[in-house]
């Protein structure tokens, strides 16, 4: 199948503190997370300026109002044990009040829903436990999926696309049973076979420093019957060693990816967390705006389509005909 034209898509993981619920939250991390609302606002302003819709993966509990009173396990709606063969509770950092702005974000969701142009909403799970079938109890995963769907139905949000927590694509057959039709997949590289996270992340960083052209992708149906739209490039934060990436590289690499997508009639899929914009915020937004400027120019010249994940799925299902 062909998409008939190159496609640019953006997916965003909105999770606040849920993304690191299993780890101690330092003062620096709290400060970073506390700036996400302003970052989301500025991202939406850029999307408005360039008339671009992105796909936002929302952790469902951001919209829930269930508080932990300290008398029971945190998040009793998630079946225990969460991790196999250990008593460690994933939600040890969960607060005892349901107004902590690092854990609740209905106001952020409202900001996104009120944005122009309309933004695409999908699930990023309910509580951000990774769907790793090797380590996560299946009943914990099912309870997370059930609660994610409950929240999406409560707020009349679509529940057909999943952005997996930490990009671990597991329990896909179960997700299919609950209505998920597609997900963001993970592009594989030769070095992913190396059994060391430090080494694989080092190669990822090196590719960004060297400005190597990213991969472009086509949607495909996996063995669970779900449509996978793999990632092409992560827009890194500028924290620590990542500052070795020259300022101009992310925009240049994205331009290479867009050119490749046009030539091959494939998808260039950029993704990030709003927190990736915390360090050197103005520089990051400048880099991102360069990417949007180039993509919108290509679109306005009829060389490129800018679609959400949902629109790509519609085009895929119709065999490459124009998405509505």
Q: How many domains make up the 3D coordinates? A: 1
CATH superfamily: Glycoside hydrolase/deacetylase
What global shape is seen? globular
Our Rg estimate from Cα atoms comes to 19 Å
> How helical, in percent, are the residues?
25-40%
3D structure, described in words:
The chain is 35% helix and 12% strand. It is of the alpha/beta class and 324 residues long. It has a single domain (6-317), classed as Alpha-Beta Barrel (TIM Barrel). The strands form two sheets. Strands 1, 2, 3, 8, 9 and 10 form a six-stranded parallel β-sheet that branches. Helix 7 runs parallel beside helix 8 (281-300). The longest helix has 20 residues, at 281-300. The chain is globular and about 60 Å long. The mean pLDDT is 94.
Please name the defining characteristics of this protein.
324 residues, alpha/beta, TIM Barrel, 4-stranded mixed beta sheet, 35% helix, globular
Can you lay out the helices and strands and say which pair or pack?
Blueprint: E1 6-14, H1 27-34, H2 36-50, E2 55-58, H3 106-113, E3 120-123, H4 138-154, E4 161-162, H5 172-177, E5 182-185, H6 197-210, E6 220-221, E7 227-230, E8 233-234, H7 249-264, E9 267-272, H8 281-300, E10 304-306, H9 309-317
Parallel strand pairs: 1-2, 1-9, 1-10, 2-3, 4-5, 5-7, 8-9
Antiparallel strand pairs: 6-7
């Amino acid at each position: 199948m062909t998409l008939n034209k190159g496609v640019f898509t953006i997916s965003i993981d909105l999770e606040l503190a849920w993304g690191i619920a299993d780890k101690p939250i330092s003062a620096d991390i709290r400060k970073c997370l506390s700036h996400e609302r302003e970052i989301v606002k500025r991202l939406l302003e850029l999307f408005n300026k360039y008339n671009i819709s992105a796909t936002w993966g929302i952790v469902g509990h951001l919209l829930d109002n269930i508080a932990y009173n300290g008398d029971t396990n945190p998040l009793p709606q998630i079946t225990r044990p969460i991790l196999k063969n250990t008593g460690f509770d994933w939600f040890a950092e969960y607060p005892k009040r349901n107004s902590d702005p690092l854990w609740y974000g209905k106001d952020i969701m409202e900001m996104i829903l009120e944005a122009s142009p309309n933004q695409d909403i999908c699930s990023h799970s309910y509580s951000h436990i990774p769907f790793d079938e090797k380590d996560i109890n299946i009943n914990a995963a099912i309870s997370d999926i059930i609660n994610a769907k409950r929240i999406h139905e409560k707020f009349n949000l679509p529940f057909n696309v999943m952005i997996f927590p930490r990009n671990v694509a597991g329990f896909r057959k179960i997700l299919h049973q609950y209505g998920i039709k597609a997900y963001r997949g993970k592009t594989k590289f030769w070095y992913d076979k190396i059994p060391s996270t430090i080494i694989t992340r080092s190669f990822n960083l090196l590719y960004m420093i060297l400005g190597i052209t990213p991969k472009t992708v086509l949607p495909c149906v996996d063995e669970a019957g779900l449509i996978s739209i793999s990632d092409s490039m992560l827009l890194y934060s500028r924290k620590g060693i990542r500052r070795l990436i020259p300022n101009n590289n992310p925009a240049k690499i994205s331009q290479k990816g867009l050119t490749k997508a046009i030539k091959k009639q494939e998808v260039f899929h950029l993704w990030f967390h709003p927190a990736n914009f915390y360090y050197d915020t103005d520089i990051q937004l400048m880099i991102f705006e360069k990417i949007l400027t180039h993509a919108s120019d290509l679109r306005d010249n009829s060389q490129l389509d800018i679609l959400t994940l949902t629109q790509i799925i519609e085009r895929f299902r119709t065999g490459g005909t124009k998405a509505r």
